[in-house]
Amino acid sequence: MSSETISGPILTSDGIPLKVSLRKAEKRNKIRAFLLVLPLLAFILITFIIPIGDMLARSVDDRYINTVFPKTFEVFKKWDKQDLPPEEVYETMFFEINAAEGYKIGKSSTRMNYSKSGWKSLIKKSQRKFKRIKEGPYKEQMIKIDKRWGDPFYWKALGEMVDPTTMGYYLNAVDLKYDSNKEIIAQPENRRIYNHTWIKTFKVSLLVTLFTLMLGYPIAYLLATLPLKYSNLLMICVLLPFWTSLLVRTVAWMIILQQNGVFNNLMVIAGLIADENRWKLMYNETGTIIVMTQILLPFMVLPLYSVMKTISPSYMKAALNLGASPLHAFWKVYMPNSLPGISAGGLLVFIIAIGYFITPELVGGKDGQMIGNWIAYHLKTTLNWGLCAALGSILLAVMLVFYWVYNKIIGVENIKLG
Amino acid sequence: MSEKDSFVKFENVDKSYDGESLVVKGLNLDIPQGEFLTMLGPSGSGKTTTLMMLAGFETPTSGEIYLEGEPISSIPPYKRGIGMVFQNYALFPHMTVNENLAFPLEVRKLEKSEVEEKVHKALSMVELQDFGTRMPLQLSGGQQQRVALARALVFEPRLVLMDEPLGALDKKLREQMQYEIKHIHENIGITVVYVTHDQSEALTMSNRIAVFNDGKIQQISTPDVLYEKPDNSFVAQFIGENNQIKGKVKSMNGKNCVVETENGDEIVSLKININSVGETSLLSLRPERVWVNVNEKNYENNFDAKVEELIYLGDHVRTRVKVCGNDQFIVKIPNSSDHSDLKEGATVKLSWKADDTRALDFKG
User: pLDDT value at position A180?
Assistant: First the structure.
């Protein structure tokens, strides 16, 4: 009998298996816990997960044009891509342009224009002039209206829109494109803009991270080691800019940094630079780096401070006592213990910097623009949301890669933000 | 005084943090080589500050500290070659036990094989040979304590300082560690300066104890002298249990004096820390030096006392009585059949010797 009780499942005193009984008892708690997190879960889902999902989808989505020209693409697929398409393609295209509502045609032609510029104006022009065409065959008459209808490159460009998904936006985001045979090629030299912006974005972000670390580390150390009454004052000094509007701070920097600004004037008065050789500190990369460093400094100082606060001063004392010089003690004992703060601050500043927008926009000039500025430009000016989504997705992917590398090297569990 | 007798020497050392009050006042102290000296005192008495000045983390405001005859005030802590065990061990959390122990050796640029050998030897000394690859946080409090001890000794310092090293351990472990530290000290013969506020710890471990209060050494002596013959009322009260009776000095005669308590009883006692007839004195008397219902002829002091409270503690009965107007008077009565009739409210005869009663200063 005793062997039975050992081998079988453990029962409660009323004969129900213990696990079942426990599950039942815990069920209420689980439901309550779930209900407690539900509002936040819903909030995150609606404001974060869904938009990101939508962005990822948008970056490859190419269905819209397929809903406007379904039949044209149907017959287009049969074309052997030699010379010009057959009459049938022209005919369905003619009817579908005429049948669709104006805004649908507009939106589609914008999409077609991404693949081959000229499509938009061609369709706009054709829409007006198609009224003259009463009956078929249509091919000749359409070419007569506009020569471009007889250009095979225009037709071949349609080939990349036939699939409901496209990599076109991603290719565009890294200065590549499809050629007329749907082979991936580099953009012509004068149209390459993104790759060097990507490189600059990483360069600026890394430099800003480095500078904030160099400037923030000593401040954080002071904050963590000074007596409370001094460190509180210093903390206010660190946070004060934090409480000032970002725009105000950036404009203040513009006043300081411009060629006739405060800094250059002081340098000229001090006789350190000649009046005609005033430094260009703004409307270039230098300006972007200077201002972003100042603005992002608190994001470095605060995680560093919170970690340093936990480093017992007795570690340094012990290291000195054991015979290490102050420098050696710092390098071997203090610094390794502050590493979680360095990495948390570094990751935070880098991630914020990589997607930064306002500061480069205002003080960056032509030279100091970052990828965030291009996203904003396409979002607001060209309305090329597919490209925005692709740029944004790449940004997200890069951040995830950094996060992954960081996790491999240092370990996310070591992050301390406060 | 020979070199050996003042291995460490404090000479008129003052320390002030704020320029308004002194934390350490005119400290003079000689520590011979190989001694285990404990600085004992309540918090704020200046004992830790004294230790920190010796380690080099604080500088004396005036006066000088000598180590082996050399003034060390201007030598930075990392050049003093003094080992130290910190209150919370201060083991480097990002290094393994081995790396922690190797740290002082690598700083001194020892050969790798020599480092390994010494680390192993130090770990064996604290019986943690198998724990070298662990991280400090994976060890129990007692094990961390031992690693800290090994680290302070591994580079063979001239002197080891310990700043309340057992404060964070539970009682049983603390007692065990007290013996271990004592044995290590005896085995390697190193000079130890130990700071604690726990008097039983001080009594267990030390060759000599310096009792600190108010920035000054109140008395420095061996544990038994300190307990048996306290020089002043602070020491008497701080070390061990102690009955205090307040009274006025009525007469002085050779080594003895007579003190009259507030209710008129006259107690014969040793004249220790009083100067003149008429001044107020605090008598100090250990509870175990008071006898119940014995032959009165052998004792100078005999009084009737009323038993107020009995606390049974197994080997003895802690008895609170009212005698000479003091109702907080404690007597430790051995658990024997002689005293089986002791009851609360009963009147007993208490007797004690003049030699066990010390007339000390009265403050406040």
Answer: 73
Superfamily in which the B8-233 domain is placed by CATH: P-loop containing nucleotide triphosphate hydrolases (3.40.50.300)
List of chain A residues whose C-beta atoms are within 8 Å of the C-beta of residue B56: 320-321
% of chain B exceeding 70 in pLDDT: 97
The angle at the Cα of B262, spanning B259 to B264, to the nearest 5 degrees, equals 70
* Closest CA of chain B from A206, distance in Å: 27
Look at A329 and B78 and tell me if their CB atoms are within 8 Å.
yes
Q: What structural domains and CATH numbers belong to chain A?
A: 19-60 (no CATH), 63-164 (no CATH), 194-414 (1.10.3720.10)
Cis amide bond preceding A137, omega within 30: yes
The structure tokens listed for B315 are 């080997």
Torsion sign (Cα): A321, A327, A328, A334: positive
Check: CB of residue A368 under 8 Å from CB of residue A360: yes
| Parallel/antiparallel/unpaired status of strands B36-40 and B280-285 | unpaired
Any idea where the domains of chain B sit in the sequence? 8-233, 241-361
Pick among B48, B54, B57 to test the A interface (most A CBs inside 10 A): B57
Is A315 within 8 Å of chain B by CB? yes
The tens digit of pLDDT for each residue in B316-361 reads 888 999 988 888 899 988 887 666 667 888 888 899 998 889 999 8
Contact: B92, A318; criterion CB under 8 Å: yes
The whole-angstrom separation of Cα A394 and Cα A397 is: 5
Confidence band of A308 (pLDDT split at 50, 70, 90):
very high
* Minimum distance, in Å, between the CA of residue B343 and any CA atom of chain A: 52
Among B114-118, B142-146, B295-299, the least confident range: B295-299
Fold of B241-361: OB fold (Dihydrolipoamide Acetyltransferase, E2P) (2.40.50)
Residues of chain B in contact with residue A333, where contact means CB-CB under 8 angstroms, are: 92
Cα gap B198→B171, rounded to integer Å: 11
| Closest CB from A312, A324, A339 relative to B107 | A324
* Contact between A325 and B103 using a beta-carbon 8 Å cutoff: no
Distances (CA, A) of A44 to A37, A40, A47, B198: 11, 6, 5, 56
Q: Answer yes or no: are the C-beta atoms of A96 and A89 closer than 8 Å.
A: no
User: What global pTM score does this model have?
Assistant: 0.78
Interface membership of A329 toward B (CB under 8 Å): yes
Measured on CA atoms in the order B168, B172, B176, B182, is the torsion positive or negative?
positive
Sheet containing B301-312: order of strands = B291-292, B347-352, B301-312, B316-323, B326-334
Beta carbons within 8 Å of A283's beta carbon, 6+ residues apart: A363, A364, A365, A366, A367, A368
In this prediction, residue A414 carries a pLDDT of: 62
Sorted by sequence, the CB contacts under 8 Å of residue B127 that are 6+ apart come out as B146
CB pairs < 8 Å spanning A and B:
62
